[in-house]
Amino acid sequence: MGVEAYSDLLSDIGVDVDKHAKMMNAGLDSYKKQFMSQPNRPKAMEYFNWFMSEIQGQRIAEINKIRREKKPAVGTFCIFVPEEIIVGAGGACYGLCGGSPATIPDAESELPRNICPLIKSAHGFKLQRTCAYTQSSDFIYGETTCEAKKKTWEILNKHHPVHVMNIPHMKREKDLKMWKEEIVEFKEHIEEVIGKKLTFDEMVDGVKIINEKRKALQRLDTLRSMNPNVVPISGKDGLFVTQMGFLDDPVRYTEKVNELCDELDERVEKGVSVFEKDTPRLIVLGTPFAPPNWKLHTTVENTGGAIINEESCIGHRYYKDNVDLEGVEDEDTLMDRLMKRYSEVDCACFTPNTPRVDKILKMYKDRQADGVIYYTLSFCHTYNVESHLVTEALEKEGIPCLIIESDYSAEDTGQIKTRVEAFLESLTFKKKAKAFKGIK
Ligand code: BJ8
After folding, report:
1. Cα(163) to centroid of ligand 1, in Å?
2. Where would you tag: which of 137, 305, 358, 403 has the fewest CB atoms within 10 A of its CB?
3. How far apart are CA 256 and CA 241, in angstroms?
4. CA–CA separation, 334 vs 156, rounded Å?
C-alpha cells in the first residue's frame, strides 16, 4: 500500500499529506532504482522492500496504536537514547527523518546555513511536517553531543517537545556518575509520559529485546565482512538493513535480520559473492548515514568497490556492545549496566577518544580490508577534527585512506566518483603488487 492509503491517519497526526506523499513517492522511486535493480540480491531482502513500502504507512499506524495504548513513542537523532527503557515500557523508539536535502531550505529560515546537514534536514522535516515519525512522537530525545545539536534543541522545542539528556564529554568517574543519573531521570520522564511506574522486570525485558537486536546485527556484520573471499550482500543493502533497524519493531526486525543471516550463511558456505573476486574491500568510518543518504555507498559500489561495513552510528558503533545482564538483580545495578554499555560508545564528542582509533585498526585487520573511507558530514567539527588523529594512526600502519566530506546535495557526486575511482585504482594496483611479491 502507498502512503495515500493512510492519509486520514497522517492528517490526524498533523502531517502535510500532499507534500509528504510527493516526498515518499520520490524516495520509493529512488529506492527502486538504486536497490531493487541490483543483481543477485538475497531473497530475504524482500521483507526489507516491503518495509520500505510501508515505512511511512503501516509502521506509522503501528506506532500510533502503541500511543493509543498509553505507551511511549520516542523519536531520536542519536544512539545514546536508552531505548531499552522505552521498549521495556512497551513503547517504540525510532530514528527521525534527517537524511534528505529537500527540507534544508525550510530549516535555514531558523538555523544557520553552515551547520551539519543532518540537523538542518531533521529540523526542516519538523517545520514542513513531512516526517510522520516526528509527528507521532510523544517527545524527541535530544542530547548534548555537539554544539549544533544542543542549540537546535532549544529552537526545535518550540515546535515539538524535546527531552534533553546531558551526555558528558569525558568519561571520568564523576562524568559516569552524572551519566547514570541522567539515565534514571530519563526513565522517570518515560514514567511521566505513560503515567505509571516501570518495573524492574519490564526494563529487563526491554534490555533482552534490544540485546537480541544488536546480536542479529553483529551476526550480519560478521557475514558481510569476515570472509575475505565472499561478500554475500552488497554494502548498500547492508547499510539499508541497518538503517531500517532504527524504524522497525525490534522483535520483528530481529527475526527478519536473522532470516537474512541464515541465507547469507548459506551463501558464504557455497561461495556466492555479489562482487567479483579481488574487488577492493572497504570500511567506511565516521558520521551516520540517515536514510535516504545512500550517496557514498551507491557511488563506491557503482565504481567497483565493496563496502563491507560502517564504523558509524548507523553501523558498528550502534550494535558493537550489549548490556551485560549477568548477576543483575536490582534496578540500581541495571542502571549501572546501562550506563556502562552506553559509555562504551566512542562518538567523537568525547575527549580523549583513543579507544575509537584502536578499534578502527583492529576492525581493519580482522576484516582483512583493503582500505578505508573516512566520511564526514560537512560542518561536523568533532568527526572532522578527529580525522587527523585517525588518519595519523592509519598512516603509521600503512592503511590506505580516502577522506570525503560531503552533504546531502547531488552536486559533488561527480567529484566523489572521480576521487573514489582513483582510490580504487591505487588499491587494485597495491593488491596486484602484493600478489606479485607473494605477500598475503
Ligand atoms: S553518538 S555521531 S548519533 S552524536 S554529524 S549531528 S555529531 S555535527 S550525529 Fe551523532 Fe550520537 Fe555521536 Fe552517533 Fe553533530 Fe556531527 Fe552532525 Fe552528528
Report:
1. 17
2. 358
3. 10
4. 32
Q: Whose CA is nearest to atom 12 of ligand 1?
A: 347
Q: List, for the chain, all residue ranges whose pLDDT scores fall below the cut of 50.
A: none
- CB contact at 8 A, 203 and 210: no
In this structure, which residue's CA is closest to atom 14 in ligand 1?
Answer: 146
Spatial neighbors of 178 by CB under 8 A, at least 6 apart, are: 166, 168
pLDDT digits (tens, 9 = 90+) for 278-309: 999 999 999 999 999 999 999 999 999 999 99
Atom nearest to 145 CA in ligand 1:
4
All cell numbers assigned to 105: 531550505
Smallest CA separation from ligand 1 atom 15, residue? 380
Give the Å distance between the CA of 157 and the centre of ligand 1: 19
How far is it, in rounded angstroms, from Cα 248 to Cα 234?
Answer: 21
Cell of 10: 497522517
Give CA 280 to chain center in angstroms.
Answer: 24
Measure 312 CA to ligand 1 centroid, in angstroms: 10
What is the pTM (predicted TM-score) of this model? Answer: 0.96
Ligand 1 atom at minimal distance to the Cα of residue 119:
6
Q: pLDDT digit string (tens) for 46-89? A: 999 999 999 999 999 999 999 999 999 999 999 999 999 999 99
Binding-site residues, ligand 1, Cβ < 6 A: 78-80, 116, 118-119, 145-146, 148-149, 287-288, 313, 345, 347, 349, 377, 380, 382-383
Q: Cell match 531520536: residue?
A: 76
Output the residue whose Cα is nearest ligand 1's atom 10.
78
376 sits in which H/E element: strand 371-377
Distance, in Å, from the CA atom of 214 to the CA atom of 259, rounded to the nearest integer, reads 15
- Position 439 scores a pLDDT of 63
Residue 345, exposed/middle/buried by CB under 10 A (0-12, 13-18, 19+)? buried
Distance 267 CA to ligand 1 centre (A): 35
Q: For 115, which DSSP code?
A: S
Cis peptide before 82 (omega within 30 of 0): no
Whole-angstrom distance, CA of residue 369 vs CA of residue 328: 38
